[in-house]
Amino acid sequence: MRTASLASTDGTEAAPGVQSVDRALTILDILARLGEAGVTEIAGELGVHKSTAFRLVATLEAHGMVEQNEGRGKYRLGVGVLRLAGATTARLDVVQEARSICRKLAADSGETVNIAVLSDRSVLYVDQVAGQSALQAHNWVGQHIPLHATSNGKVLLSGLSSDEVDARLPRLPSYTPDTVTTRAKLRRDLALVRDQGYAVAVDELEIGLTAIAAPIRNAHGDVIASLSVSGPTFRLGDLRVKELIPVVQDAADEVSRRLGHGSS
Amino acid sequence: MRTASLASTDGTEAAPGVQSVDRALTILDILARLGEAGVTEIAGELGVHKSTAFRLVATLEAHGMVEQNEGRGKYRLGVGVLRLAGATTARLDVVQEARSICRKLAADSGETVNIAVLSDRSVLYVDQVAGQSALQAHNWVGQHIPLHATSNGKVLLSGLSSDEVDARLPRLPSYTPDTVTTRAKLRRDLALVRDQGYAVAVDELEIGLTAIAAPIRNAHGDVIASLSVSGPTFRLGDLRVKELIPVVQDAADEVSRRLGHGSS
DNA sequence: CATTGAGTTGCGACATACGCAACTAGGACC
DNA sequence: GGTCCTAGTTGCGTATGTCGCAACTCAATG
User: Is A240 found in the same domain as A127?
Assistant: First the structure.
């Protein structure tokens, strides 16, 4: 999102360049939103004449971007979209899309940023961007970390059903006095995470270590990864944590958006 | 090479409707094929002036359909495509109904689960749920895959008549030494699939790749989609495959039931 | 420092895409 | 079964929006 240029244009609706193309793409958006729509309805939304809408739709249809119910029916998105999506996802993975956002987050917060995914019975760290602070936690990438004792773990678990959680956690070993060791507490924590959309863990894995994590979701809304900011507890007090929570959430949401989440 | 000459000068192709929209969509096709391209390159493929290509691309960018590498870079498909794809699959009731079942199957088996439908002359993957690791190894969604070299393909073909099969497979290209390349063998395989109610493909598309698929049927009993579990051959040996076959069949049957099959 | 090559923008000519209105066909209501 | 009504489809002339040109900016390369 080219920072400057875009901000100026989306105030109301600026002439985006090629009118008919803009309209055609808007039709796709409309169909994405409504699921199905007739020519007249589309024309209404666009504020153009029926025939114009029809021709645009016909062109989209020729490219497989939309399909018609049958003979005379309404229109809906077509498989051409999926073909394009295939080509997009080919080069799309969480780490790549998240990298620039993580860098920015690390620079803004000064703390270490991590991306983690669920791997069998543990949290797998797949990327890390160090903060500016000299006091550096070691590199977690490639490490397997307990699911129940980290903010990332709780976020990842929050996307699973209760059964799946139990299956992945036969035991709840303790690492510090603050580690969650009972299923009841864990269940409560996960419900809270689901509700709030973030997780915080203070001194649960290691004394003096605080982390804030938020979920990264794919186009279907599934939690596929977790993004966290972590640092020493003395730097991340209650106040600072409160400040950082929305920042972490925004970053995670932005990554999710890049992965196609947000249409629903 | 499919296009570039869509609306050129010759009358081979019927006027596709709106020229600029046609060109814009062709740009998306080009980017899907090349992965990345600059304005000049696109203009060359389209046979139009640089500035024309630029304006079309700019319009696509305003809708998030393409993105620019940075400041002055090349263009590639953007996240808008994924948003649309999400809306497209959300509309397919097969995907909707199958989603939760797929997730369970993926969790239970630890392998990747796919839903595929027949699209012209290939298998079109419309949904995928990764196995143990939430990090998707390779997302096939939107990809077109040969019909005769995959378990999904065989399942989908098994619902067609012999004539239809021939019509969709003018040739049987080989991908590995184990690919089915003769019609006689294919016919035998399909008969077996019909008889057994599942298909297995080992090293037929790619060496080291094994897949098990079963049909999803609608209320009329037609095969409308295929559900598969796939993974590396070293993890899916004979024994494991034998274990998984009924599991895959059960899952597919459950989806079929939700779509109204067998309930009447 | 010149040069090349890429993306970007103002402008005028003219091709094109638009709106209009007439047409067709399916469905609903009588 | 007929008639009306709605919604998708098509021919046509014209104003509109789009295209090609050429000039510009900016980076990288020599």
Answer: yes
